[in-house]
From TrEMBL:
<dbReference type="InterPro" id="IPR007694">
    <property type="entry name" value="DNA_helicase_DnaB-like_C"/>
</dbReference>
<dbReference type="InterPro" id="IPR027417">
    <property type="entry name" value="P-loop_NTPase"/>
</dbReference>
<keyword id="KW-0067">ATP-binding</keyword>
<dbReference type="Pfam" id="PF13481">
    <property type="entry name" value="AAA_25"/>
</dbReference>
<dbReference type="GO" id="GO:0004386">
    <property type="term" value="F:helicase activity"/>
</dbReference>
<keyword id="KW-0347">Helicase</keyword>
<keyword id="KW-0547">Nucleotide-binding</keyword>
<dbReference type="InterPro" id="IPR027032">
    <property type="entry name" value="Twinkle-like"/>
</dbReference>
<keyword id="KW-0378">Hydrolase</keyword>
<protein>
    <submittedName>
        <fullName>Twinkle mtDNA helicase isoform D</fullName>
    </submittedName>
</protein>
<feature type="domain" description="SF4 helicase">
    <location>
        <begin position="1"/>
        <end position="123"/>
    </location>
</feature>
């Protein structure tokens, strides 16, 4: 996030790191107090409330797999993933609020490159 905020790679400009870190520290950050699986409706409602009350313009969801839980079968997971991503897209459009969705790939051997199938065995959300 700091790299995006600074609009450049700070590891290549270490003399500017403190300045950008101080500016980033001044940003108002709000955190949802959710932990574990949540309904998408609850998450979207909370995000809409934050847009209204705090006038936020960026939400980070970390992470999709944890939010979805492990209850669904693999075929249901793809449909659930599509539904959730669609709900986040609609929220972003309707509220003019940017959404960053963190998706962690499954663990792979160190010598194996990550593939689109490393995300739930599906490439559905990787093409966004």
């Amino acid at each position: 996030m700091l790299t995006q905020f600074a609009m450049g790679r700070l590891e290549e400009q270490l003399d500017k790191y403190d300045e950008w870190a101080d500016r980033f520290e001044d940003l108002p950050l709000y955190f949802m107090t959710f932990h574990g699986q949540q309904s998408i409706r609850t998450v979207i409602d909370t995000m809409q409330h934050a847009v209204y009350v705090y006038d936020i313009c960026h939400v980070v969801i970390d992470n999709l797999q944890f939010m979805m839980g492990h209850e669904q079968l693999s075929t249901d997971r793809i449909a659930a993933q599509d539904y959730i991503v669609g709900a986040f897209r609609k929220f972003a459009t309707d509220s003019s609020c940017h959404v960053t969705l963190v998706i962690h790939p499954r663990k792979e051997d160190d010598d194996k490159e990550l593939q689109t199938a490393s995300i739930f065995g599906s490439a559905k959300v990787s093409g966004l």
